[in-house]
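== Fold encoding ==
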Amino acid sequence: MHPMRKNTTAAELARRLGVNIKTVYKYTAVPRAEYEANALTRTKPWEALGISRATWYRKGKPEFKPETPNLAVNPTPMASLDNENA
């Protein structure tokens, strides 16, 4: 994120600083080269997944699902503790 951008609107910032809103836009705008470098059409994440651009947008951005260990080895661990104490 651009260092000048916060959760404040340009109008609020202009009012607080006593400047025109266009001045705020000028200093908070993301440079075109930076914007295009981070644009999805430039990075083409759908190619890394081996799907078409249309499929990417139709299905939405895929979510990362980390691999979790198999927890079904002992589905009721408390039951085994109860048997040991009996």
In short: Helices lie at 10-17, 21-28, 32-38, 40-43, 45-49, 53-59, 77-85. The chain is about 55% helix and 0% strand. The first helix runs from residue 10 to 17. The two ends are 59 Å apart (CA to CA).
